[in-house]
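User: quick one
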Amino acid sequence: MSKAITARSQDYSQWYNDLVLKAELADYSAVRGCMVIKPYGFALWENMRDALDKMFKDTGHVNAYFPLFVPKSLFEAEEKNAEGFAKECAIVTHYRLKADPTQKGKLIVDPEAKLEEELVVRPTSEAIIWNTYKNWIQSYRDLPILVNQWANVVRWEMRTRLFLRTAEFLWQEGHTAHATKEEALVETKKMLDVYADFVENWMAVPVIKGVKTANERFAGAEDTYCIEALMQDGKALQAGTSHFLGQNFAKAFDVKFSDKENKLDYVWATSWGVSTRLIGALVMAHSDDEGLILPPKIAPLQVVIVPIYKGEEQKAAIDAKVNEIVVQLKKAGIRVKYDDSDQARPGWKFAEYEMKGVPLRLALGARDLEQGVVELARRDTREKKSMPLEGITEVILAQLDAIQKNLFDRARQYRDEHITPANNWEEFVNLLDTKGGFIAAHWDGTPETEEAIKEKTKATIRCIPLDTAPEQGVCVLTGKPSTQRVLFARAY
Amino acid sequence: MSKAITARSQDYSQWYNDLVLKAELADYSAVRGCMVIKPYGFALWENMRDALDKMFKDTGHVNAYFPLFVPKSLFEAEEKNAEGFAKECAIVTHYRLKADPTQKGKLIVDPEAKLEEELVVRPTSEAIIWNTYKNWIQSYRDLPILVNQWANVVRWEMRTRLFLRTAEFLWQEGHTAHATKEEALVETKKMLDVYADFVENWMAVPVIKGVKTANERFAGAEDTYCIEALMQDGKALQAGTSHFLGQNFAKAFDVKFSDKENKLDYVWATSWGVSTRLIGALVMAHSDDEGLILPPKIAPLQVVIVPIYKGEEQKAAIDAKVNEIVVQLKKAGIRVKYDDSDQARPGWKFAEYEMKGVPLRLALGARDLEQGVVELARRDTREKKSMPLEGITEVILAQLDAIQKNLFDRARQYRDEHITPANNWEEFVNLLDTKGGFIAAHWDGTPETEEAIKEKTKATIRCIPLDTAPEQGVCVLTGKPSTQRVLFARAY
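Assistant: Done. Structure below.
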């Protein structure tokens, strides 16, 4: 197969693009900044979505669906939120096309079909949802509302990258309403934990839980909690956020409830989301120069079996055995494919499934069959070994578990090795330019200093980690006193 | 509960609206013609979607995702398709809002952020998808492509109704590409069969399979196959369509493939879709003046258990028994809820779950417990009977099956009784105005006559049924010769 991709060492960014295209996760489209998610990429997203959806439901949430469009007057109601998203909104202004009188077969926007009020294509749904919750909430008995939505959203980004930053993307957005501040805070943190659980235990990507600084906060939130992951090139990636919205949206949309004492108060809110961006994180956390490496728990295909034979007779004998194995594996819940297509040689198939990151490959030849063995090849370590066919299902289940664990362990080791303290400006800049990763440094707590550091180095405060111990120190830039280290990094 | 709804006999249309709102399937929104699908309605949609999705995958299809927006130049490429949808498109013309200099806190569309080319919010995705397939298809080896997409689409309808006709709706759209006409035709009919199977065996709504006349064909299709259902008010509802697109889109987007002999030819296409409109059909096919009636196979909740007690001691004894039952039922795969909330009386709960269409209700009181029995109430027939607690899981499974079957049987009986032949114009008009339903009548085969009948009576040809025998006759309107009866009806 002629599918070689750029090496990471040569050009990490190009490696990523090559990989996404050649592993057939996604494709460019005719619409600026929008991508096509190809069937293989979408199967991966379905596995991620289904696992997350179950976690949401297990924590008491239900799904619903709200309109794609937000009337401009609702969009602008929560001022900070509106300000944060106004610069990157797709706006619907008309509702009809008509024949172009000057060019046969062409269409023009019908100027007579101008909307009285423009519609914003949702960049996020707080506005339309809180405008709806107003009608759903009268009393404490109507609370909490624990709703999630799987949807497409549009943010008109200037520089886009497949999965990482696209004008349209798929995501889920939870929007909850509570009677008390405490309950809303518990919800915000609970969903951060759900995200961390998912990203670590399904995607095998270790994360740091933290809280964002004011500069990096979601527009309209009181506090933004986040999980931050580290990519192989030493850049950080925000993998999910959970916002404590206070009473901001309740006030903007006048959503009050009467409590048990019949006193009126504004409702407390949270929102939280993860998106198809996670696929970008997954690719960059694990994959190598041969292609994707996928964690077994979410891989569309966990095992592929390739026959190696000469002539029909050998093929028939292998087929018979493999069909037995496939039945056993499927019974054990394993996603398996037997690729006995005669359109490609085994070597080509091997490379193809390596490109696609299938965790385990089995190759079975005539001699293996005689000896009652099969060759297992792990995608993560590229180790091959011959194993007895007898009891192969248990071996495969154990191998899949081992791969899942190994991916997490090696990503965690890399991540842990790339959290480095810096105690002065020179160290800080030097670490950023040589080693990369997270830099644990003191900061004086002001937005101005954060902004100055960003301008000088392109590094941002990824988060104030939840589990950091207080420590006296001085800001790496200004030398002013600080009580805690925060994590800086250059980021996607 | 104060949730009485308008009786069907009084105002069928109002009954429908009341029911959708009060059963909490959907709500109006702040966006013209767009609805909010509430959690209960969305849980129903999830069950429908999951069942359909499995059927698509079992027939070899995979999911993918294509952009929400279609650049105008692509939209207009297939002329008939463009003409069909141009009048009802939401158009994005700008990509930014900015602060209104005249009003603090308000936003206006930034005139400097005008798109060079307008984007159409997809009313259907043939254009964007075939423009993509162009890059995916070179050779017969790339065919067939069997892709489905679950997505939101927008059609700017002037008169909207919850679920039945909304400006934005959720649907799935299959888009397949084939090397031969024959294969595309087989696919078109196969997916029609899948739809019929789903609507009949999951939704318990009988359908008639047929083909549309040229007037009612999908814009850009060579042939549109459909399934037509009958609502309780005698109006028909198109429940799903499967289009044979010929080579129209391949020609519009220049999608050619080389066959085994290395000869270039245009690719053959199909597309097929069903939408959240099906929920409207479901409501109108089965429900009554007390509320929804849902088929067990797709009901979000199949069984609800309500305790009837005085005092804590009785409650505790009932709880203990019900908890056992719930475990058993869940183990049997039944979606069950034990509603032991003390916020409402049993009578209120009974009415609430009737409104929501829960197929089976169990009521368990202290005396029942002593006697080892429980009261079962069927939502479809409203029959109640006392049954032994011993072996109740099997009884419930059998009852759920019986309800599923009964709903289909009675809908089919109603439907069959409402297919009436009309042999002249007077009969035709009379039947439409009195009995309603499908009218099997001869038609001269011309679009003009079809249009004239529509103008006179508001009845349209729902389909030319696939299973009708040829029969000589004369057109009910023009008296011209005809070789087959077609089905007319007023329709949603």
